[in-house]
Amino acid sequence: MRNIRMKIAYDGTRYNGFQTQPGGNTIQDIIESAIETLTGTRTRIIGSGRTDARVHAEGQVFNFHTDSRIAVERWALALNSRLPEDIRVVESAAEVPDAFHSRFSAKRKTYRYSICTGKFHDVFRRNFEFHHPSPKLDVAAMREALRHLQGEHDFTSFTTNHADEKSHVRTIYSAVLKEEEKRLELYLTGNGFLYNMVRIIAGTLIHVGQGKIAPAAIPGMLQGRNRLLAGPTAVAHGLTLINVEYGDAEK
Predict the structure, then answer these.
(1) Which ranges carry the Pseudouridine synthase I TruA alpha/beta domain (predicted)?
(2) Residue 165 pLDDT more than 90?
């Protein structure tokens, strides 16, 4: 039995998220069907994390166990020829140790949340960023708030699913808000993220930028461990999973 690791990018606009669910039409469903056409066997894939409906990825990782003898260098092109145009394998496949698990072996993940601040939304990027035309966001205040979120904290106030994880403690290694003309991009790198955590952080920062929440209120949100203390959950389509990092032995 071989363990194959692959990296994909996808436009999540028309899908119900990454992870299989009763309603179908997920990224996982599409990939598993493509693998079945190649091997003749229904194969379950393991994703590095689930992304919600309309959330995108530039570097989602998955692995699967298979008895197929298809050469590892053929997997990427073979799958891409069977996948829709909005789902692409973006790196050559790799055979990894049997113990490798795309989710549990991950060391770091990076997400981006994009905000269009122009008066009119960008028609070509409308499915990939949240449009916030006015009032002008206070970027300095948003960056000050971000500083309070870096490091190891209990992020209970920044998740909507309290039963899915044994611990809500996570470490954010890097939190950067980049400003360009008519656009803000939030980059978060951490050792893991709770359900809706990045979107709640983004929604909270938008409220900070609007003056509705003071940057100094962030430590109290963390200490209070209550979802009602933080800001709203930002819309899904502004979020993209950028990269997942593993140890050297598991690359």
Answers:
(1) 9-104, 145-246
(2) no
Helices 139-149 and 197-209 pack at an angle, to 10 degrees, of: 140
Determine the pLDDT at residue 248. Answer: 62
Active-site annotation, residues? 52
**CATH of range 2-104; options 1.20.120.450, 3.20.20.80, 3.30.70.580, 3.10.20.90:** 3.30.70.580
- Does the pTM of the predicted model rise above 0.85? yes
Mind listing the pLDDT tens digit for each residue in 171-199? 999 999 999 989 999 999 999 999 999 99
Q: Token pair 């996948």 is at which residue?
A: 83
Please tell me whether 111 is known to bind a ligand.
yes
Confidence of residue 211 (pLDDT cuts 50, 70, 90): very high
CATH (residue range 108-244)? 3.30.70.660
Nearest to 65 by CA among 6, 4, 20, 8: 4
Nearest to 64 by CA among 92, 96, 89: 96
56-66/46-47 β-pairing: antiparallel
d(CA 104, CA 193): 12
